[in-house]
Design goal:
Elements: H1 16-31, H2 38-54, H3 56-67, H4 71-97, E1 100-102, E2 112-119, E3 122-126, H5 134-145, E4 149-153, H6 159-172, E5 178-180, H7 185-193, E6 198-202, H8 205-218, E7 222-225, E8 230-234, H9 240-254, E9 266-272, H10 276-291, H11 303-314, H12 316-319, E10 322-324, E11 328-329, E12 334-335, E13 338-341, H13 348-351, E14 358-364, H14 369-375, E15 383-386, H15 390-399, E16 405-407, E17 428-429, H16 434-440, E18 442-449, H17 465-469
This protein binds nicotinamide-adenine-dinucleotide.
The site of nicotinamide-adenine-dinucleotide has 29 residues, from helix 7 and helix 8.
Active site: 225, 263
InterPro entries: Ald_DH/histidinol_DH, Ald_DH_C, Ald_DH_N, Aldehyde_DH_dom, Aldehyde_DH_NAD(P)
Protein name: Aldehyde dehydrogenase
Length: 470
Protein backbone atom coordinates (compact mmCIF):
# COMPACT_ATOMS: atom_id res chain seq x y z
CA UNK A 1 0.00 0.00 0.00
CA UNK A 2 1.43 3.36 -0.96
CA UNK A 3 0.73 6.23 1.33
CA UNK A 4 -0.97 9.24 -0.21
CA UNK A 5 -0.59 7.58 -3.60
CA UNK A 6 -2.31 9.47 -6.37
CA UNK A 7 -2.67 12.61 -4.27
CA UNK A 8 -0.52 15.68 -4.58
CA UNK A 9 2.32 16.25 -2.13
CA UNK A 10 1.11 18.57 0.53
CA UNK A 11 0.76 19.19 4.16
CA UNK A 12 -2.95 18.66 4.48
CA UNK A 13 -3.03 15.20 2.91
CA UNK A 14 -2.59 12.97 5.94
CA UNK A 15 -3.61 13.79 9.46
CA UNK A 16 -1.40 13.16 12.45
CA UNK A 17 -3.56 10.15 13.31
CA UNK A 18 -2.88 8.52 9.94
CA UNK A 19 0.83 9.03 10.40
CA UNK A 20 0.71 7.54 13.87
CA UNK A 21 -1.11 4.47 12.54
CA UNK A 22 1.54 3.94 9.86
CA UNK A 23 4.41 4.34 12.29
CA UNK A 24 2.65 2.06 14.78
CA UNK A 25 2.37 -0.61 12.08
CA UNK A 26 6.09 -0.31 11.35
CA UNK A 27 6.78 -0.69 15.07
CA UNK A 28 4.58 -3.76 15.36
CA UNK A 29 6.46 -5.26 12.42
CA UNK A 30 9.81 -4.45 13.99
CA UNK A 31 8.73 -5.83 17.35
CA UNK A 32 7.68 -9.08 15.66
CA UNK A 33 11.34 -9.65 14.82
CA UNK A 34 10.61 -9.92 11.09
CA UNK A 35 13.19 -7.36 9.99
CA UNK A 36 16.04 -8.74 12.05
CA UNK A 37 16.94 -11.88 10.13
CA UNK A 38 19.51 -12.08 7.35
CA UNK A 39 16.96 -13.37 4.83
CA UNK A 40 14.58 -10.44 5.27
CA UNK A 41 17.38 -7.88 4.94
CA UNK A 42 18.79 -9.63 1.87
CA UNK A 43 15.36 -9.93 0.22
CA UNK A 44 14.68 -6.21 0.76
CA UNK A 45 18.03 -5.16 -0.67
CA UNK A 46 17.45 -7.43 -3.66
CA UNK A 47 14.02 -5.89 -4.10
CA UNK A 48 15.57 -2.42 -4.02
CA UNK A 49 18.03 -3.51 -6.68
CA UNK A 50 15.15 -4.76 -8.83
CA UNK A 51 13.39 -1.43 -8.40
CA UNK A 52 16.53 0.40 -9.54
CA UNK A 53 16.86 -1.85 -12.58
CA UNK A 54 13.23 -2.13 -13.65
CA UNK A 55 12.27 1.51 -12.99
CA UNK A 56 15.46 3.13 -14.25
CA UNK A 57 13.72 5.00 -17.08
CA UNK A 58 10.96 6.23 -14.75
CA UNK A 59 13.55 7.56 -12.34
CA UNK A 60 15.47 9.38 -15.07
CA UNK A 61 12.13 10.86 -16.16
CA UNK A 62 11.12 12.21 -12.74
CA UNK A 63 14.59 13.61 -12.16
CA UNK A 64 14.29 15.44 -15.48
CA UNK A 65 10.84 16.70 -14.46
CA UNK A 66 11.85 17.93 -11.01
CA UNK A 67 15.34 19.22 -11.71
CA UNK A 68 15.97 19.12 -15.45
CA UNK A 69 18.80 16.63 -14.92
CA UNK A 70 20.20 15.12 -18.10
CA UNK A 71 19.60 11.35 -18.12
CA UNK A 72 23.33 10.59 -18.08
CA UNK A 73 23.94 12.89 -15.12
CA UNK A 74 20.87 11.49 -13.34
CA UNK A 75 22.09 7.93 -13.85
CA UNK A 76 25.65 8.74 -12.74
CA UNK A 77 24.67 10.69 -9.60
CA UNK A 78 21.59 8.81 -8.45
CA UNK A 79 20.53 5.51 -10.05
CA UNK A 80 24.07 4.30 -10.81
CA UNK A 81 25.48 5.40 -7.45
CA UNK A 82 22.63 3.63 -5.63
CA UNK A 83 23.01 0.44 -7.65
CA UNK A 84 26.65 0.30 -6.64
CA UNK A 85 25.71 0.85 -2.98
CA UNK A 86 23.06 -1.88 -2.93
CA UNK A 87 25.47 -4.29 -4.66
CA UNK A 88 28.06 -3.51 -2.03
CA UNK A 89 25.59 -4.00 0.83
CA UNK A 90 24.46 -7.35 -0.57
CA UNK A 91 28.04 -8.49 -1.03
CA UNK A 92 29.00 -7.61 2.56
CA UNK A 93 25.77 -8.07 4.50
CA UNK A 94 26.73 -11.34 6.16
CA UNK A 95 30.11 -9.97 7.19
CA UNK A 96 28.57 -6.74 8.56
CA UNK A 97 25.99 -8.69 10.58
CA UNK A 98 28.53 -11.08 12.10
CA UNK A 99 29.49 -10.47 15.74
CA UNK A 100 32.96 -8.99 16.02
CA UNK A 101 35.31 -10.80 18.42
CA UNK A 102 37.31 -8.46 20.63
CA UNK A 103 40.20 -9.07 22.99
CA UNK A 104 39.85 -7.95 26.62
CA UNK A 105 42.42 -6.68 29.13
CA UNK A 106 43.90 -9.02 31.75
CA UNK A 107 41.63 -7.67 34.44
CA UNK A 108 38.66 -9.32 32.70
CA UNK A 109 40.19 -12.80 32.28
CA UNK A 110 38.60 -15.31 31.75
CA UNK A 111 35.75 -13.30 30.24
CA UNK A 112 35.40 -13.30 26.45
CA UNK A 113 33.47 -10.69 24.50
CA UNK A 114 32.13 -9.76 21.13
CA UNK A 115 30.33 -6.78 19.65
CA UNK A 116 26.92 -7.73 18.31
CA UNK A 117 25.28 -5.22 15.95
CA UNK A 118 21.58 -4.93 16.69
CA UNK A 119 19.03 -2.88 14.76
CA UNK A 120 17.90 0.32 16.44
CA UNK A 121 14.17 -0.13 15.77
CA UNK A 122 11.94 2.18 13.76
CA UNK A 123 13.90 4.94 12.04
CA UNK A 124 12.91 8.12 10.22
CA UNK A 125 14.79 9.22 7.10
CA UNK A 126 14.12 12.77 5.91
CA UNK A 127 15.76 13.83 2.69
CA UNK A 128 16.40 16.88 0.54
CA UNK A 129 15.36 17.68 -3.05
CA UNK A 130 18.68 18.04 -4.85
CA UNK A 131 19.44 14.32 -5.22
CA UNK A 132 15.91 13.26 -4.33
CA UNK A 133 16.31 9.57 -5.15
CA UNK A 134 19.95 9.16 -4.12
CA UNK A 135 19.67 10.93 -0.79
CA UNK A 136 16.40 9.16 0.02
CA UNK A 137 17.46 5.62 -0.79
CA UNK A 138 21.15 5.72 0.18
CA UNK A 139 20.36 5.98 3.92
CA UNK A 140 17.51 3.47 3.47
CA UNK A 141 20.10 0.91 2.28
CA UNK A 142 21.88 1.25 5.64
CA UNK A 143 18.62 1.21 7.60
CA UNK A 144 17.46 -2.00 5.88
CA UNK A 145 20.86 -3.72 5.97
CA UNK A 146 20.98 -3.06 9.72
CA UNK A 147 17.53 -4.69 10.16
CA UNK A 148 15.36 -1.69 10.99
CA UNK A 149 11.85 -0.74 10.04
CA UNK A 150 12.08 2.60 8.25
CA UNK A 151 9.87 5.50 7.24
CA UNK A 152 11.12 7.72 4.44
CA UNK A 153 9.91 11.30 4.00
CA UNK A 154 11.24 12.65 0.72
CA UNK A 155 11.31 16.36 -0.05
CA UNK A 156 8.11 17.98 -1.26
CA UNK A 157 10.24 20.25 -3.47
CA UNK A 158 10.91 17.35 -5.85
CA UNK A 159 7.22 16.34 -6.19
CA UNK A 160 7.48 13.95 -9.16
CA UNK A 161 10.26 12.02 -7.43
CA UNK A 162 8.44 12.04 -4.11
CA UNK A 163 5.35 10.62 -5.81
CA UNK A 164 7.45 8.03 -7.65
CA UNK A 165 8.96 6.82 -4.38
CA UNK A 166 5.57 6.70 -2.63
CA UNK A 167 4.08 4.63 -5.44
CA UNK A 168 6.98 2.33 -6.35
CA UNK A 169 8.76 1.58 -3.08
CA UNK A 170 5.74 -0.25 -1.59
CA UNK A 171 5.40 -2.33 -4.77
CA UNK A 172 8.89 -3.75 -4.27
CA UNK A 173 9.67 -3.57 -0.56
CA UNK A 174 7.88 -4.97 2.49
CA UNK A 175 5.31 -2.23 3.11
CA UNK A 176 4.64 -3.40 6.67
CA UNK A 177 8.17 -2.31 7.58
CA UNK A 178 9.25 0.18 4.92
CA UNK A 179 7.00 3.13 4.22
CA UNK A 180 7.14 6.35 2.26
CA UNK A 181 5.24 9.32 3.62
CA UNK A 182 4.97 12.37 1.43
CA UNK A 183 4.57 15.93 2.62
CA UNK A 184 6.16 19.24 3.48
CA UNK A 185 7.20 20.93 6.71
CA UNK A 186 3.86 20.33 8.46
CA UNK A 187 3.97 16.59 7.85
CA UNK A 188 7.65 16.59 8.79
CA UNK A 189 6.83 18.31 12.08
CA UNK A 190 4.08 15.77 12.82
CA UNK A 191 6.53 12.97 12.11
CA UNK A 192 9.19 14.58 14.28
CA UNK A 193 6.72 14.70 17.14
CA UNK A 194 6.55 10.91 17.23
CA UNK A 195 8.99 8.63 19.00
CA UNK A 196 11.78 7.24 16.80
CA UNK A 197 14.80 5.09 17.44
CA UNK A 198 16.88 7.17 15.03
CA UNK A 199 16.37 10.19 12.81
CA UNK A 200 18.56 10.50 9.75
CA UNK A 201 18.22 13.96 8.25
CA UNK A 202 19.64 15.46 5.06
CA UNK A 203 18.95 19.13 4.54
CA UNK A 204 19.70 22.63 5.77
CA UNK A 205 21.26 23.60 9.09
CA UNK A 206 18.13 25.64 9.82
CA UNK A 207 15.84 22.59 9.67
CA UNK A 208 18.59 20.47 11.24
CA UNK A 209 18.10 22.54 14.41
CA UNK A 210 14.36 21.81 14.34
CA UNK A 211 15.11 18.09 13.95
CA UNK A 212 17.54 18.07 16.86
CA UNK A 213 15.15 19.96 19.11
CA UNK A 214 12.35 17.48 18.35
CA UNK A 215 14.69 14.52 18.85
CA UNK A 216 15.75 15.81 22.27
CA UNK A 217 12.22 15.27 23.58
CA UNK A 218 12.56 11.48 23.18
CA UNK A 219 16.37 11.35 23.46
CA UNK A 220 16.42 10.08 19.89
CA UNK A 221 19.85 9.82 18.27
CA UNK A 222 20.23 11.85 15.09
CA UNK A 223 22.48 12.05 12.10
CA UNK A 224 22.52 15.43 10.39
CA UNK A 225 23.83 15.65 6.84
CA UNK A 226 23.86 19.42 6.39
CA UNK A 227 25.06 22.19 4.12
CA UNK A 228 28.33 22.49 2.32
CA UNK A 229 29.89 25.84 1.31
CA UNK A 230 32.80 23.71 0.19
CA UNK A 231 35.89 25.63 -0.91
CA UNK A 232 38.38 24.54 -3.54
CA UNK A 233 41.93 25.80 -3.19
CA UNK A 234 43.50 26.11 -6.63
CA UNK A 235 47.31 26.29 -6.55
CA UNK A 236 49.12 27.47 -9.68
CA UNK A 237 49.62 24.13 -11.39
CA UNK A 238 52.54 24.11 -13.79
CA UNK A 239 51.65 21.60 -16.48
CA UNK A 240 48.92 22.64 -18.88
CA UNK A 241 47.66 19.05 -18.95
CA UNK A 242 47.15 19.08 -15.18
CA UNK A 243 45.54 22.51 -15.37
CA UNK A 244 43.04 21.33 -17.95
CA UNK A 245 42.19 18.25 -15.93
CA UNK A 246 41.82 20.27 -12.74
CA UNK A 247 39.49 22.90 -14.23
CA UNK A 248 37.42 20.09 -15.76
CA UNK A 249 37.01 18.62 -12.29
CA UNK A 250 36.12 22.05 -10.86
CA UNK A 251 33.53 22.62 -13.60
CA UNK A 252 32.09 19.15 -13.04
CA UNK A 253 31.65 19.86 -9.33
CA UNK A 254 30.36 23.40 -9.75
CA UNK A 255 27.99 23.13 -12.69
CA UNK A 256 27.88 19.53 -13.90
CA UNK A 257 26.08 18.08 -10.91
CA UNK A 258 22.59 19.52 -10.42
CA UNK A 259 23.78 22.95 -11.63
CA UNK A 260 25.68 23.61 -8.42
CA UNK A 261 22.81 22.56 -6.15
CA UNK A 262 24.96 19.91 -4.50
CA UNK A 263 26.13 19.81 -0.90
CA UNK A 264 29.56 18.50 -1.96
CA UNK A 265 29.79 20.74 -5.01
CA UNK A 266 32.32 23.58 -5.02
CA UNK A 267 30.95 26.76 -3.49
CA UNK A 268 33.92 29.06 -4.17
CA UNK A 269 37.56 28.99 -5.27
CA UNK A 270 40.65 30.29 -3.49
CA UNK A 271 43.56 31.26 -5.74
CA UNK A 272 46.49 33.69 -5.77
CA UNK A 273 46.12 37.21 -7.23
CA UNK A 274 48.77 36.29 -9.75
CA UNK A 275 47.15 33.06 -10.97
CA UNK A 276 43.52 34.26 -11.03
CA UNK A 277 43.54 35.63 -14.64
CA UNK A 278 44.92 32.31 -15.97
CA UNK A 279 42.35 30.32 -13.99
CA UNK A 280 39.47 32.47 -15.22
CA UNK A 281 40.49 31.93 -18.86
CA UNK A 282 40.78 28.19 -18.26
CA UNK A 283 37.34 28.10 -16.66
CA UNK A 284 35.77 30.04 -19.53
CA UNK A 285 37.28 27.50 -21.91
CA UNK A 286 35.92 24.50 -20.04
CA UNK A 287 32.45 26.07 -19.71
CA UNK A 288 32.38 26.44 -23.50
CA UNK A 289 33.62 22.90 -24.00
CA UNK A 290 31.30 21.17 -21.50
CA UNK A 291 28.17 23.30 -21.32
CA UNK A 292 27.57 25.00 -24.68
CA UNK A 293 24.36 23.00 -24.89
CA UNK A 294 22.31 24.02 -21.87
CA UNK A 295 20.30 20.78 -22.14
CA UNK A 296 23.31 19.13 -20.50
CA UNK A 297 22.79 21.23 -17.39
CA UNK A 298 20.14 20.81 -14.70
CA UNK A 299 17.68 23.54 -13.74
CA UNK A 300 17.15 25.49 -10.50
CA UNK A 301 14.63 23.56 -8.44
CA UNK A 302 11.92 26.23 -8.15
CA UNK A 303 11.06 29.92 -8.42
CA UNK A 304 11.98 30.59 -4.82
CA UNK A 305 15.54 29.32 -5.19
CA UNK A 306 15.84 30.91 -8.65
CA UNK A 307 14.89 34.29 -7.16
CA UNK A 308 17.22 33.75 -4.18
CA UNK A 309 20.14 33.25 -6.58
CA UNK A 310 19.11 36.22 -8.74
CA UNK A 311 19.01 38.38 -5.60
CA UNK A 312 22.57 37.37 -4.77
CA UNK A 313 23.65 38.56 -8.22
CA UNK A 314 21.61 41.76 -8.10
CA UNK A 315 23.48 43.17 -5.15
CA UNK A 316 25.46 46.07 -6.65
CA UNK A 317 28.84 45.16 -5.25
CA UNK A 318 28.39 41.50 -6.23
CA UNK A 319 27.25 42.46 -9.74
CA UNK A 320 30.41 44.54 -10.09
CA UNK A 321 32.50 41.42 -9.57
CA UNK A 322 30.97 39.53 -12.52
CA UNK A 323 33.59 38.27 -14.98
CA UNK A 324 31.65 35.62 -16.85
CA UNK A 325 28.02 34.59 -17.43
CA UNK A 326 25.27 36.09 -15.34
CA UNK A 327 22.38 35.61 -17.75
CA UNK A 328 19.22 34.08 -16.35
CA UNK A 329 16.04 32.60 -17.84
CA UNK A 330 13.11 32.79 -15.42
CA UNK A 331 10.80 30.71 -17.59
CA UNK A 332 13.26 27.84 -17.69
CA UNK A 333 14.56 28.40 -14.15
CA UNK A 334 18.03 28.49 -15.66
CA UNK A 335 21.09 30.48 -14.66
CA UNK A 336 24.16 30.05 -16.81
CA UNK A 337 27.55 29.11 -15.31
CA UNK A 338 28.69 32.36 -13.77
CA UNK A 339 32.06 33.50 -12.41
CA UNK A 340 32.60 36.36 -9.97
CA UNK A 341 35.98 37.76 -9.01
CA UNK A 342 36.35 38.89 -5.41
CA UNK A 343 32.74 39.63 -4.43
CA UNK A 344 32.71 41.28 -0.97
CA UNK A 345 33.30 38.73 1.77
CA UNK A 346 30.59 40.17 3.99
CA UNK A 347 27.83 39.73 1.38
CA UNK A 348 25.42 36.78 1.49
CA UNK A 349 27.12 35.17 -1.49
CA UNK A 350 30.17 34.59 0.72
CA UNK A 351 28.53 34.15 4.12
CA UNK A 352 25.84 31.62 3.09
CA UNK A 353 25.92 28.43 1.05
CA UNK A 354 25.28 29.46 -2.59
CA UNK A 355 23.70 26.21 -3.82
CA UNK A 356 23.63 27.27 -7.46
CA UNK A 357 25.82 27.96 -10.50
CA UNK A 358 27.51 31.14 -9.23
CA UNK A 359 31.23 30.67 -8.64
CA UNK A 360 33.07 33.31 -6.61
CA UNK A 361 36.85 33.35 -6.99
CA UNK A 362 38.57 34.83 -3.97
CA UNK A 363 42.16 35.90 -4.45
CA UNK A 364 44.94 35.75 -1.86
CA UNK A 365 48.54 36.95 -1.84
CA UNK A 366 49.93 33.46 -1.22
CA UNK A 367 48.08 30.18 -1.66
CA UNK A 368 49.11 29.22 1.90
CA UNK A 369 46.88 32.08 3.15
CA UNK A 370 43.92 29.88 2.26
CA UNK A 371 44.47 27.95 5.48
CA UNK A 372 43.82 31.01 7.65
CA UNK A 373 40.89 31.92 5.39
CA UNK A 374 39.28 28.54 6.02
CA UNK A 375 40.07 28.46 9.73
CA UNK A 376 38.15 31.70 10.15
CA UNK A 377 34.97 30.13 8.73
CA UNK A 378 32.56 27.30 9.66
CA UNK A 379 33.82 23.79 8.99
CA UNK A 380 32.74 22.75 5.48
CA UNK A 381 31.53 19.36 4.30
CA UNK A 382 34.56 19.04 1.99
CA UNK A 383 37.75 20.97 1.34
CA UNK A 384 39.03 20.44 -2.20
CA UNK A 385 42.58 21.41 -3.12
CA UNK A 386 44.37 21.28 -6.45
CA UNK A 387 48.08 21.28 -5.79
CA UNK A 388 51.26 19.29 -6.29
CA UNK A 389 52.84 20.65 -3.11
CA UNK A 390 53.03 17.76 -0.63
CA UNK A 391 53.91 19.99 2.34
CA UNK A 392 50.93 22.23 1.60
CA UNK A 393 48.67 19.18 1.34
CA UNK A 394 49.81 18.03 4.77
CA UNK A 395 49.17 21.48 6.23
CA UNK A 396 45.64 21.43 4.85
CA UNK A 397 45.03 18.04 6.49
CA UNK A 398 46.61 19.05 9.79
CA UNK A 399 45.52 22.67 10.16
CA UNK A 400 41.93 22.71 8.86
CA UNK A 401 38.78 20.79 9.78
CA UNK A 402 36.11 19.52 7.39
CA UNK A 403 33.97 16.45 6.71
CA UNK A 404 36.47 15.34 4.06
CA UNK A 405 39.58 16.54 2.21
CA UNK A 406 39.99 15.69 -1.44
CA UNK A 407 43.13 16.55 -3.38
CA UNK A 408 43.12 17.04 -7.13
CA UNK A 409 39.64 15.67 -7.71
CA UNK A 410 36.02 16.41 -6.83
CA UNK A 411 32.83 14.50 -5.92
CA UNK A 412 34.40 11.07 -6.36
CA UNK A 413 34.51 10.53 -2.58
CA UNK A 414 30.73 10.17 -2.64
CA UNK A 415 31.10 6.91 -4.56
CA UNK A 416 33.72 5.36 -2.29
CA UNK A 417 31.97 3.01 0.13
CA UNK A 418 35.13 2.37 2.09
CA UNK A 419 35.34 5.94 3.39
CA UNK A 420 32.74 7.57 5.62
CA UNK A 421 30.56 10.38 4.28
CA UNK A 422 29.43 13.14 6.60
CA UNK A 423 30.09 16.56 8.02
CA UNK A 424 31.63 18.14 11.08
CA UNK A 425 30.60 21.25 12.99
CA UNK A 426 28.15 23.27 10.93
CA UNK A 427 28.17 20.73 8.09
CA UNK A 428 26.58 18.12 10.36
CA UNK A 429 27.52 14.98 12.24
CA UNK A 430 27.22 11.23 11.88
CA UNK A 431 28.63 9.32 8.94
CA UNK A 432 27.28 6.87 6.40
CA UNK A 433 27.92 4.95 3.14
CA UNK A 434 28.96 1.31 2.97
CA UNK A 435 29.65 -0.29 6.35
CA UNK A 436 29.43 3.19 7.95
CA UNK A 437 25.72 3.23 6.99
CA UNK A 438 25.21 -0.16 8.58
CA UNK A 439 26.90 1.06 11.77
CA UNK A 440 24.94 4.31 11.68
CA UNK A 441 21.67 2.38 11.95
CA UNK A 442 22.96 -0.24 14.43
CA UNK A 443 23.62 -0.38 18.12
CA UNK A 444 27.06 -1.96 18.42
CA UNK A 445 26.21 -3.97 21.52
CA UNK A 446 29.07 -5.49 23.52
CA UNK A 447 28.24 -8.95 24.83
CA UNK A 448 30.52 -10.38 27.53
CA UNK A 449 30.56 -14.05 28.51
CA UNK A 450 32.11 -15.52 31.63
CA UNK A 451 31.83 -18.84 33.46
CA UNK A 452 31.87 -19.86 37.13
CA UNK A 453 35.25 -21.67 37.17
CA UNK A 454 37.13 -19.13 39.24
CA UNK A 455 36.47 -16.18 41.57
CA UNK A 456 38.77 -13.34 42.73
CA UNK A 457 37.96 -12.32 46.28
CA UNK A 458 39.96 -9.07 45.99
CA UNK A 459 37.03 -7.64 44.03
CA UNK A 460 34.79 -7.61 47.09
CA UNK A 461 34.73 -6.33 50.67
CA UNK A 462 35.70 -6.64 53.36
CA UNK A 463 38.50 -4.34 52.16
CA UNK A 464 42.05 -4.53 53.50
CA UNK A 465 45.41 -3.07 52.49
CA UNK A 466 46.51 -6.34 50.89
CA UNK A 467 43.69 -6.10 48.36
CA UNK A 468 44.94 -2.62 47.40
CA UNK A 469 48.35 -4.08 46.45
CA UNK A 470 46.85 -6.51 43.91
P1 LIG B 1 15.57 21.62 3.93
O1 LIG B 1 16.24 21.63 5.25
O2 LIG B 1 14.74 22.77 3.54
O3 LIG B 1 14.62 20.32 3.77
C1 LIG B 1 15.07 19.03 4.11
C2 LIG B 1 13.89 18.23 4.63
O4 LIG B 1 13.35 18.89 5.76
C3 LIG B 1 12.76 18.07 3.64
O5 LIG B 1 12.29 16.74 3.70
C4 LIG B 1 11.71 19.06 4.12
O6 LIG B 1 10.38 18.65 3.84
C5 LIG B 1 11.95 19.08 5.59
N1 LIG B 1 11.56 20.38 6.20
C6 LIG B 1 11.55 21.60 5.62
N2 LIG B 1 11.16 22.53 6.49
C7 LIG B 1 10.88 21.89 7.65
C8 LIG B 1 10.41 22.29 8.93
N3 LIG B 1 10.13 23.57 9.19
N4 LIG B 1 10.24 21.36 9.88
C9 LIG B 1 10.53 20.06 9.64
N5 LIG B 1 10.97 19.62 8.45
C10 LIG B 1 11.15 20.51 7.46
O7 LIG B 1 16.75 21.35 2.89
P2 LIG B 1 16.65 21.28 1.32
O8 LIG B 1 16.36 22.65 0.80
O9 LIG B 1 15.78 20.16 0.91
O10 LIG B 1 18.15 20.87 0.93
C11 LIG B 1 19.16 21.80 0.77
C12 LIG B 1 20.11 21.76 1.93
O11 LIG B 1 20.48 20.42 2.19
C13 LIG B 1 21.42 22.46 1.61
O12 LIG B 1 21.85 23.16 2.74
C14 LIG B 1 22.36 21.32 1.29
O13 LIG B 1 23.73 21.61 1.47
C15 LIG B 1 21.89 20.28 2.24
N6 LIG B 1 22.28 18.95 1.76
C16 LIG B 1 23.19 18.25 2.49
C17 LIG B 1 23.61 17.02 2.03
C18 LIG B 1 24.62 16.21 2.78
O14 LIG B 1 24.76 15.02 2.48
N7 LIG B 1 25.33 16.76 3.74
C19 LIG B 1 23.08 16.51 0.86
C20 LIG B 1 22.14 17.28 0.15
C21 LIG B 1 21.74 18.49 0.62
Amino acid sequence: MALITGKKCGDEEMGALGLETEVAEARTTFDSGKTKGFEWRKSQLEALLRLLQEKEEDMLKVLKEDLGKHRVEAYRDEVGALTKSVDNALLNLKKWMAPEKVSLPLVAVPTVAEIVPEPLGVVLVMSSWNFPIGLSLEPMIGAIAAGNAAILKPSELAPATSEFLAVEVPKYLDCEAIKVIQGGPQVAEQLLDLKWDKIFFTGSAQVGRIVMTAAAKHLTPVTLELGGKCPAIFDSLKSSRDQRMAVGRVAGAKWGSCLGQACIGIDYLLVTDEYAPTLIELLKGVIKEFFSNSEHLARIVNKHHFQRLCNLLQDESVAASLVHGGSVNAEELFIEPTILLNPPLDKEIMTEEIFGPLLPIITLKKIEDSIEFLRARPKPLVIYAFTHDEKFKQRIVDDTSSGCVMFNDTLIQYLCDTIPFGGVGQSGFGQYHGKFSFDNFSNRKPVGRRNFLIEFSFRYPPWNEKKLQL
